[in-house]
Design brief:
The structure holds 2 protein chains of 2 kinds.
Chain A lengths: L2 H31 L4 H13 L2 H26 L7 H18 L6 H30 L3 H23 L22 H7 L12 H18 L1 H11 L1 H6 L4 H17 L1 H10 L10 H11 L4 H24 L5 H17 L5 H8 L8
Chain B lengths: L2 E12 L2 E12 L3 E5 L6 H8 L7 E6 L2 E3 L4 H6 L2 E4 L11 H6 L8 H19 L14 H14 L4 E5 L7 H16 L3 E6 L2 H7 L2 E6 L2 E7 L5 H9 L17 E11 L5 E11 L2 E6 L6 H8 L7 E6 L2 E3 L7 H7 L1 E4 L3 H5 L6 H4 L11 E2 L2 E2 L1 H14 L16 H13 L5 E5 L7 H16 L3 E5 L3 H7 L2 E6 L2 E7 L5 H8 L13 H10 L1
Parallel strand pairs in B: 3-8, 3-9, 6-7, 7-8, 13-20, 13-21, 16-19, 19-20
Antiparallel strand pairs in B: 1-2, 1-4, 4-5, 9-10, 11-12, 11-14, 14-15, 17-18, 21-22
Helix pairs in contact in B: 8-17, 13-14, 14-15
Classes of the chains: A mainly alpha, B alpha/beta.
Chain lengths: ~375, ~525
């Protein structure tokens, strides 16, 4: 095997695998410290995620969110941008989805209502990402700083809107009235029931199809269109992109808009798909999780779907763990997910120098 | 005579590139020693090794007759070596004093160190004539003064040997004169100075000895008094076996590219192009000669639309562009210009992309490759394999990563991309840099084919041989100015070398009298 294909294998498969195993090992140590048998815990986790159809539904429901945010991070990453504002973009995307629903005539056909709401989520999420993109491209403000600040802006804005403007009259809870039923995305268990397949009820809804379609669309966009070409060229070699007549500024803004639009779709899964109203903090954790998903999935839609499934499993299986084991609290589950993000995200390349030296050493050049 | 620095057989390799190949050099104590060479000749690498930034693969370093092996620059500083980098290593919002003590604070609390430093710096300033306000912040100082701070910093840390990397690149002529005065004062006090530059005039005016580097090797050591700018230029560029290029008479047609009064400054406000006027006709090759770094890159970038026009105008096939009517690389391509950039890795291709993707760089919008929104992979692959076939690119594998082709094949792919698009105006920068001999011949032939097909070709090269054998007319760039224009048959390496060094400008206006070159040639 040539050195390049070895490197590709190391980068694409071995490294993410080792990282995730390290995260699991660290979790196992943690479990031993609190007197939990890691093997038993793993069994509980897997049972929780895949052992019964309601659990599977939850797992895929979480996976859907991670696909959206993972794709969002990946698109920006291909343009050389680190979008860590997925949280805010998802939150504002949900606002957009809801506002469109409330603006439209409640009796409007779902075939119009739902696409319009999806569009609303994408436009709002995209616009929320466009501002940092514009500031990066034309004013030189660093995208990492601005996107993270926009997360806080989104959170405060939503608190204000939910408490003061959009709250259901006569209710103490900061949430809106229910969406008209025409705006509800069908649940998967309802759809399957129509085909005579009985599964337990779960929040899993048709958004998962949207997520899978978006994965294909993003793949096509990045690798099969001239705009994707421009984005990748800009991310890989900005001066070559300029030479090729690609406007770096425009590309940055466009990539951020698309990134934000994808993150905004979290609002569709959460609000149109499950809660059927705008609520507070439906987005928490998915934006940041998306970073780890994109890193693990090597910024490729296929990898992102796999990585998102892993995170979905951890979310649902973790919830089961907390439920079944008295000495595992919800916080331990968060720590567990944190370890995965730590080893797959922050320490992504920890093993790389060793792996390269061992499996694909540089051939000495002797001339 | 004792030596301040002795380098023996220094070898340094970066991947497959030999940046330094058995380099040996001695610098006399208390002298000003110049190192000249083109960009990429290995002079900065050599000095980085001496300063401990890089470690040599093999060889030995002696400083003041003591053998050293520097693992980092701290050790080099301790041995008495100071370095002033081309790009200053200063903290902009610190004062001069704070910058000088950076890394030598002398304790957890600053007050003591600062007081001591102030006294020492005043002494140094008086001794060497290095006047600078110690309490001014760096960003309030001119570039020349910032450089002084760098020199002070090195001296404060006890440097007895001062290495300066292209110190005058960012200076105005007045500041340069000031700097040279400082050199004289330093030399008087016994400081050894190593000056890295590619400006020959400076070498001639301040140094005692010169070492010449070319492609990683040391090609000559000479006493400055016994050499000339022309000889140095020749040594730097080097003679190569004459590549046999047979070319017929050119038949120049109409003017396709015209540049008028182009002035251009970089973002440090240093003028890089000064009043450039040129015309390029269909069916001719106009060679742009010059030591690299004298404005060639900037000229290509302005002409191709990459850098905005600041002053003057560019006219391509009747379309005029100027400060208010800017153009873009995409627009220039549409008009019928193609551009082979000087640096294929930085600009010509994306090394992480597959060959197929690099082969459409700049042509990604081509309707022949797109079907609606779809940039069709099979059309892209087909385009690439056509180009590979036409220019004999090996291996002819369109999926191979661009980085994995040899330099010559990368260059052929880029040339194929630009030439096969059938442009009317072709800008080519360094077409054969780092390319093997076989490919050179092939590339030269293709360039002449373009000319014979009635295309206008602007050829920028630091290889005089290449300029002489391919061009119909030649212009010489020196320090951003056109210092000579002549027909190719009136030019030879000597006369070009002189113009590249701008040696004769003052008393010998060659540009107006091409016949004079012929006389010189006859005498020589």
């Amino acid at each position: 095997m040539s050195r390049d294909s070895r490197l590709a294998w190391i980068n694409g498969l071995l490294l993410p695998l080792l990282n995730i195993l390290t995260a699991f090992a660290a979790t196992a140590v943690l479990f031993l410290l609190i007197n939990v048998d890691p093997i038993e815990a793993a069994k509980t986790l897997l049972y929780g995620a895949f052992g019964y159809s309601e659990g599977v539904g939850y797992t895929f429901y979480y996976t859907t969110n991670f696909i959206f945010t993972g794709l969002a991070v990946a698109i920006a990453f291909h343009a050389g941008l680190f979008n860590i504002g997925g949280e805010g973009q998802a939150y504002i995307g949900g606002l957009g989805a809801g506002l469109v629903v409330f603006m439209l005539f409640p009796g409007l056909s779902p075939w119009l209502m739902i696409p319009a709401s999806i569009l609303g989520a994408m436009v709002f999420g995209g616009a929320w990402a466009m501002a940092p993109g514009y500031l990066q491209a034309y004013r030189g403000s660093h995208i990492v700083i601005t996107t993270i600040m926009f997360n806080f802006l989104a959170a405060t804005l939503m608190v204000y809107l939910m408490v003061k403007v959009l709250r259901e009259p006569g209710q103490m809870t900061p949430q809106t009235v229910l969406f008209p039923e025409n705006a509800w995305l069908p649940f998967v268990h309802d759809v399957l029931a129509k085909f005579g397949i009985e599964v337990e009820r779960s929040p899993l809804n048709m958004s998962i199809l949207l997520a899978l379609v978006m994965s294909v669309v993003v793949w096509f966009f990045l690798w099969q269109t001239r705009w994707g070409y421009a984005i990748r060229a800009t991310g890989r070699n900005a001066s070559a992109a300029v030479y090729a007549g690609i406007s770096q500024k425009r590309t940055i803004v466009i990539a951020m808009c698309i990134s934000g639009a994808l993150a905004g779709l979290v609002g569709i899964n959460e609000l149109l798909g499950y809660h059927h109203r705008i609520i507070m903090n439906f987005h928490v954790g998915y934006g940041f999780g998306g970073i780890a998903v994109a890193l693990m999935g090597r910024n490729h839609p296929f990898g992102i779907v796999i990585a998102a499934l892993l995170f979905g499993t951890l979310y649902q299986g973790g919830a089961e763990l907390a439920f079944e084991w008295s000495n595992i609290s919800r916080d331990i589950v968060v720590v567990m997910q944190g370890l995965v993000i730590l080893f797959c995200g922050a320490l992504e390349y920890m093993y790389k120098p060793w792996l390269v030296r061992w499996l694909a050493p540089v051939q000495e050049v002797r001339s | 005579m004792s030596f301040a620095i002795e380098l023996q057989n220094i070898d340094k390799r970066f991947g497959a590139v030999r940046a330094n190949d058995q380099v040996t050099m001695q610098v006399e104590q208390g002298s000003i020693h110049g190192i000249v060479g083109e960009n990429g000749a290995g002079k900065s690498t050599l000095m980085s090794i001496l300063y401990g930034f890089y470690q040599a693969d093999s060889g030995s370093i002696k400083v003041f007759d003591k053998e050293y092996w520097f693992n980092d620059s701290q050790q080099a500083i301790a041995a008495g070596i100071g370095m002033v980098h081309q790009h200053f290593m200063l903290v902009d919002n610190f004062t001069v004093l704070e910058n000088v003590i950076l890394g030598a604070e002398g304790g957890y609390l600053l007050a003591d160190g600062i007081a001591k430093a102030r006294k020492e710096l005043q002494r140094l300033a008086n001794e060497y004539g290095l006047d600078v306000d110690l309490d001014a912040t760096i960003d309030s100082l001119s570039v020349g003064l910032q450089q002084r701070v760098e020199i002070l910093k090195a001296l404060y840390k006890g440097a007895k040997i001062l290495i300066l990397d292209e110190p005058t690149g960012v200076l105005t002529p007045q500041e340069t004169d000031e700097l040279f005065k400082i050199f004289a004062a330093l030399k008087e006090q016994g400081v050894t100075i190593v000056l890295i530059t590619h400006k020959l005039r400076e070498i001639m005016s301040v140094t005692d000895q010169v070492s010449v580097m070319r492609q990683g090797t040391m090609v000559a050591h000479v006493q400055t008094a016994e050499t000339s700018e022309g000889q140095l230029a020749e040594l730097m560029v080097g003679r190569k076996v004459l590549l046999d290029v047979s070319k017929g008479e050119s038949e120049p047609g109409q003017v396709l590219l015209k540049a008028k009064h182009i002035n251009w400054q970089d973002h440090h406000a240093v003028p890089r192009l000064k009043n450039i006027n040129l015309e390029l006709r269909a069916g001719e090759v106009l060679g742009v000669a010059g030591v690299s770094g004298n404005g060639q890159s900037e000229l290509l970038q302005v002409l191709s639309g990459i850098s905005p026009i600041q002053q003057g105008s560019v006219e391509v096939k009747g379309h005029t562009f100027d400060k208010s009517q800017q153009t873009t690389p995409a627009n220039m391509r549409e008009i019928g210009m193609a551009h082979v950039p000087e640096d294929r890795h930085k600009m010509g291709m994306i090394t992480d992309f597959s060959a197929a993707e690099s082969a459409i760089l700049g042509y990604q919008r081509d309707p022949a490759l797109n079907q609606g929104w779809w940039l069709k992979p099979e059309l892209v692959a087909q385009r690439c394999s056509d180009l590979m076939q036409a220019f004999d690119v090996r291996p002819a594998d369109v999926t191979l990563k661009s980085a994995n082709f040899s330099g010559g094949n990368q260059q052929k792919l880029i040339l194929a991309r630009e030439m096969e698009h059938n442009p009317d105006v072709l800008l080519i920068g360094q077409p054969t840099r780092g390319v093997d001999v076989g490919a050179i011949e092939f590339i030269h032939k293709r360039i002449l084919d373009m000319r014979d097909a009635g295309k206008a070709v602007l050829l920028v090269s630091v290889e005089l041989e290449e300029i002489l054998s391919l061009s119909d007319r030649i212009i010489v760039l020196c320090d951003g100015e056109i210092t000579g224009r002549m027909a190719a048959e009136d030019a030879d390496e000597r006369s070009l070398g002189m113009l590249m060094a701008n040696a004769q400008k003052a008393h010998d206006p060659l540009s107006q009298q091409p016949s004079q070159t012929q006389e010189q040639e006859a005498q020589a």
